[in-house]
Amino acid sequence: MVSIAREILLHDKLRFVITVVSLGFAIVMMVYDVGMFFGVTSDSVNLIDRAHAELWLSEEGESHLNALSLVPDSTLGKARRLDGVNQACALDYSIGNLKIGDTRQVEVVGIDPACPLFQPWEVVEGDVGELRRKDTIVVDDLALRGINHAQLGDVVELNGREMRIVATTNDNKSFSYPYVYINLQTFKSVGGAPGHYSFVAVQTRPGADQDQIMRRLAKANSDVAVSRAQEFRLATIMALIAQGVGMIFVIVLVGVLVGMLIITLTMYTATMERLRDFAILKALGATRWKIWGVVLEQAITKTAVSFGLGLAATLGVDYCVETMSGIRGRYPIPVIIGCFVMMVILAIFGSLISIIKATSVDPVMVFRA
To answer: Is 133 helix (H, G, I), strand (E, B) or coil?
Structure first.
């Protein structure tokens, strides 16, 4: 029956191509939207995921990365002196304007170059350690693109202050803008709040009681919220949704639902158009279960071929969008496998409706015009 299912599919090659293309379009809609969801959420918490910290300290009521959080600089020293704390590092964070001929928005990250918890990743060229010097900056290559571009050693302006590029990075960005890194002292001169940091991140020692450390941190620092990294990460994503970016997730949901509908209807229509073929099989003595097997095998085959084409098209669209805007999706292997399984289930569901008609078809219709 395997060869019969395949022969029925390929008997009308044009119809097969049209079905595969229709399914491929639906797959692009679904997989790209799912990839964008993972891309937006993961990019928005890049700094949290890359930091080697279990606890985050922020201003009370501002427990997410995009908050206008201010914690007293004394918080850092208090955290470092606690038993069970391995490392504590300060982080300053804000939106800024980088001028390279024209002006472009960036996310300004103030770090201590000597602190291991916050370090730029995927350094393309230069030395991040040079951030110790006054008025130096590390810039992601996304911020350097355009008609007006800069390179290592050039002088650029950040919020009106001239700085020299000492290193460049790749893929250091949030959902909205690329990152630029400056040291904590320089950050104060381009808009930082004197006597305050945005956040303090804490790395605990192996085996330390994190609950106890959280209580002691909260007791030692009034008006400071202490969050686990996972809680801080989730709060950042939820704040992103609440700030209006949630519309992206609505678009993703609509795209997925439309894709599901297209797949289901396409498979139903494709099977119903083959009723005459199933009537022939029944006239030749095929049992109900054999016809079910043919229909299901056709559904899986069409889905597999369409998914391969759709996935290739999705990656091509994603590459073009990233090249033009810097926004990209993420497609982990488990997500791709999950999407494929969902496509097969939808294809089978669409076929199940028509299978009832296929197995009850009258063999006499073979002789009808």
So the answer is: coil
Looking at the fold, whether 213 and 83 belong to one and the same domain comes out as yes
The answer on 68 and 39 residing in a single domain is no
Q: Give the closest residue to 217 by CA, choosing from 33, 29, 54.
A: 54
CA 352 and chain centroid, separation: 34
Q: Are residues 198 and 141 in the same domain?
A: yes
The number of domains in the chain is: 2
User: For residues 363 and 277, is the Cβ–Cβ distance under 8 A?
Assistant: no
What would the pLDDT profile of 225-262 be if each residue is shown by its tens digit? 888 999 999 988 888 777 655 566 666 667 667 766 77
337 with 214, same domain: the answer is no
- Residue 229 within a domain: no
pTM over 0.90: no
Distance between CA atoms of 21 and 350, rounded to whole angstroms? Answer: 17
* Separation of alpha carbons 135 and 46, rounded Å: 25
- What backbone torsions phi and psi does residue 225 show, to the nearest 5 degrees? -90, 140
3-state class percentages of the chain: helix first, strand second, coil last, to nearest 5 = 55, 20, 25
Reading the block at residue 241, the tokens are 């949704």
Write the pLDDT tens digit of every residue in 281-322.
666 666 666 767 777 777 778 788 888 888 899 889 888 887
Q: Is residue 237 part of a domain?
A: no
On whether residue 235 sits in a domain, the answer given is: no
Report the 10 Å Cβ neighbour count for 245: 17
89, part of any domain: yes
Torsion, Cα of 114, 118, 124, 130 (10° steps): -30
Amino acid (1-letter code) at residue 129: G
Task: Look up the domain containing 158 and give its range.
Answer: 61-222
